[in-house]
Amino acid sequence: MSTGSQRSLVFDALVLGGGIAGLEAALNLADQDFSVAIVEKDASIGGKMIRLSKVFPTLDCSSCITTPKMAAAAHHPKITLFTYCELQSLVRQGDDLVAAIQQKPRFVDEVKCIGCRQCEYQCPVLAPDDEQGGVAGRKAIYIPFSNAIPQKALIDTENCILCGRCAKICPTQAVNYFQEPEAFTLTATTAVIATGFELTKLSDKTQYGRGTIPNVITALQMERLLAPHGPYNRALRPYDGMEPDNIAFIQCAGSRDQSMGVPYCSRVCCMYAIKQAMLLSGSLPLADITIYYMDIRAFGKGYEQFFQNAQAMGVSFIKGKVAYLDPGDNGAVLVRYESQEAEGGVQVAEHDLVVLSLGMLPGWNPESHCALGTAGDNFIKTVKPKLAPTLTDLTGVFVAGAAAGPKDIVDSIVEAGAAAMEASRYLAAREESRKQRAVS
Questions:
Q1: How many CB atoms are closer than 10 A to CB 371?
Q2: Could you give phi then psi for residue 207, rounded to 5 degrees?
Q3: pLDDT in tens, 250-302
Q4: How many Cα neighbours within 13 Å face the side chain of 74?
Q5: Which domains does the chain have, with CATH numbers?
Q6: Which residues, in sequence order, are bridge partners of residue 62?
Q7: Beta bridge partner(s), residue 319
Q8: pLDDT in tens, 41-67
Q9: Is the pTM here over 0.90, yes or no?
């Protein structure tokens, strides 16, 4: 892995984003013998998918799908990883794209670090672990998660107390408290934007308590609770560690909501809520599980059958819009909703745990970074969404996955393959053009 110590590096293709779409695009290009640089903002590649428990509708292990692709990218001779980096600008200079990159400081020398975790074991500080949804702790110096790539530590400067224990115990003297950001450039002929998505903030929803109501969690937090390598090894309430007997999922908690500036459907929320409900039904067979929904959008292959399977397992579906959440007794949550079923009217239900299906937002805003256009929903604009959904309004730059709009894993992988093919065609055309100019 390169640490970005050279001031200027040249590749055939640049892939911005190391999630499942970025990895798929990079591997497709590298297997065609093109040199590829993957630039990832996090300390590990893998994106959102490596944080999931299982995938719908097959309920296959998410890590079992993602980890081999992460390892394949890390060991591919034609792929170079640049993790914990931010894109400062992407501009076209003649036939090439020039990307200005800033390597954020880990305060650990990536070349010297051997991933032994001795520093992590010695650190006396505990801080909330974002990789576990904030419901578990990690040390101030840490490797993000067990199958992170690269297996390199970094220091959380907000919580580090500069006790020096990590530096003393490190067998390779890799800890460097004085490490600074480092700028370098990458020159490529083509680029694939695969920057993924973020979720709307729990604190933005006034009606749902702005994140202050105990035992109201996000869908990604529930993914970690359900994961075999999650914080508790089983589904427990984060507030008090109790096993919940009555669980609610609230759909469209951040999508299809003009008040939050997210008028569109996020597409995957219905299916991942059904997936989580089915997994909870298996791990907590006596629990009552309810999904409050506006519409169930089961549009993909096998999705409708997946929905029907959940109903057969005893998951309750209530058609109604949840208006407010209020704290109840003993950590319970009161759900006030307007039922659209036969009885109608405003009703109140009490649940031990509430999971919010938040909306999907763009993971990266190209404004001030490059000349890429965005659509009305702020995702990357595609100029031919029906015929060629990976084409952007910037020549030689293609888009894949949720960077272009909300989509599930299957569609993201398919689109990443399409983006890689468009990029390879562009590379071939450029090479042919260079040969013709050389001859003439």
A1: 13
A2: -65, -25
A3: 999 999 988 888 999 999 999 999 999 999 999 999 999 999 999 999 999 99
A4: 16
A5: 8-104+181-196+363-433 (3.50.50.60), 200-360 (3.50.50.60)
A6: none
A7: 293
A8: 999 999 999 999 999 999 999 999 999
A9: yes
